[in-house]
Design goal:
mainly alpha, 2 helices, elongated
């Protein structure tokens, strides 16, 4: 696999993981506490804590990427020419 393939694999894994991590422990603001603002979204999250979610996503992605790397390098899965 080429030198640019590994960063691309990590980025794909990272984006898949971030969409799995975002809903974890997300608490919505109660509709009656949104106020009288017109256009207020009832699905607003109280404390999104994005920095923590980004760090958690990076750690989980690193572990998954490490497993993928080990599997490919060990030869269990090969992306070379067939036969």
């Amino acid at each position: 696999m080429g030198i640019w393939t590994w960063p691309a694999v990590f980025i794909i894994i990272w984006w898949l993981v971030i969409f799995m991590v975002l809903p974890w422990s997300a608490k919505r603001i109660e509709p009656d506490k949104l106020g009288e603002e017109e256009g207020a979204d009832p699905d607003t999250v109280k404390k999104p804590n994005l920095l923590m979610r980004i760090l958690l996503t990076t750690v989980i992605s690193g572990v998954i990427f490490g497993l993928v790397y080990l599997i490919v390098v060990s030869g269990v899965i090969s992306f070379g020419k067939a036969g």
